[in-house]
Amino acid sequence: MTTSRTYGLRWVAAALVATALLVSAVAVEAGTAGSDEGCTGTFQWPVKPFDRPHQVRGAFGDPRTVFHGPPTRETLYGGAGTFSFHEGVDITAPDGSTVYPVASGTVARVTKEWVGVDCRNGRAFEYWHINAAVHVGQRVLAGKTVLGRIKRGESHVHMTELDRRQPVNPVAPGRLSPYADTTAPRIFGISLRRSEEAPNEMPQFVRGSVYLLAEATDYAESIDTPGLRVPGIYRNWPVSPARLTWRIERWDGNVIVRERVARDVRQSLPENSRFWSTFGRGTYQGQSVFGPHYSYLQPGHYVFNLAGGRFDTRKLRDGVYDVVVTAQDIAGHSDVESLRFTVHNAPGWAGKP
Fold first, then answer.
1. Any idea what DSSP says for residue 42?
2. For residues 158 and 130, what is the distance between their CA atoms, to the nearest angstrom?
3. How confident is the model over 248-270, as pLDDT tens digits?
């Protein structure tokens, strides 16, 4: 037999469960401690509309070059400076646009230039070039809390995603969504040089150690759908492809040097100390800096050091070879180009190797 006491206990238990669920829902809505919504899986855009892709004019892993010397060839090919990899993506939006967090979390840092939001699960996000509207310790909700507005003259918000303090690619599959990439990168040329600043070697006669260099780019509008071109003065500016590989074949197609990765930023970045073993001299970012000189409206130029240094052709038998380079974007579209060259390390120069 069921007693009134039993009914009472059931009613109390049900009321406690309902109260707990209500408190939990209120906590999530208010963004109180313990909520990790938006901190795992895919996330939306930091500017409206959240559910449509926006133009990206600066790619993850692009070069960032600040030369200490004057704007001369000597500085470009041998000058000191500060050289690093772009740790996020530059999302185009008008000055004054409202910027929102892509994931709920707690504001960990506020400066005159950027706001950092910590998700408390190893993930964090930084939003640069904004006038902050939040304070340290404030709980923020994805797509609801106003972090700030884009500063005058910036026309973009830079967003960095950190996983255990390491930058990761925000546009890698399963992250920023929706995201579309419908066109392929391009390789404009492959060259062999005695030094990075030297003229190209004649491919008909190559000997000793050389640099294997490739010029390759993607384009800002190709990161989005064809209709989402970067507007205004930055239209058609190049960005660097996510991955480059190379191999060497004999003229008959027999692979002599297997596929090697020259660069891969589809997920993460190399250390900045590897900048000049990834990029080749002659590389500079868009609107590059040379001492006090700011190269306003000048697009970037990207040369890749395929072997990470010199390649010794004496490792090959004298003969005819093809160096084959593949450039790939984040969506897997690719371009393949090759350069045929003849190795002749035997003494003299006459005769068939």
1. -
2. 9
3. 999 999 999 999 999 999 999 99
